[in-house]
Amino acid sequence: MTFGTTAPQWDGQWTVVALSVPEQDRGLRTTLRSRLRLLGFAALYDGVWVSPRSLDTETQSLLRDLGIDTATVLRCTEGPGRATRSRRST
Prior knowledge:
The chain contains two helices and four strands; from the N terminus they run βαββαβ. The chain is an alpha+beta fold. The chain starts with 13 loop residues before the first strand and ends in a 14-residue tail after the last strand.
């Protein structure tokens, strides 16, 4: 959908959504996940979605529209001194 356009400059901040939707609300979870993907989010862990775009307003609106009040939306940066994975060679 963005063919021929340049990517916007990233400000170094992530929009993070931490959420909990019970198993019995499977249809709601499926709808939420689909809509988060359409906004440009990707699953980081179970119940944690991230996007490099500033989507806090859109995400709050989505959660409100779906009636989800068990979620937190925040903008954050990665902390200094992150752990790096080292690979062992055998």
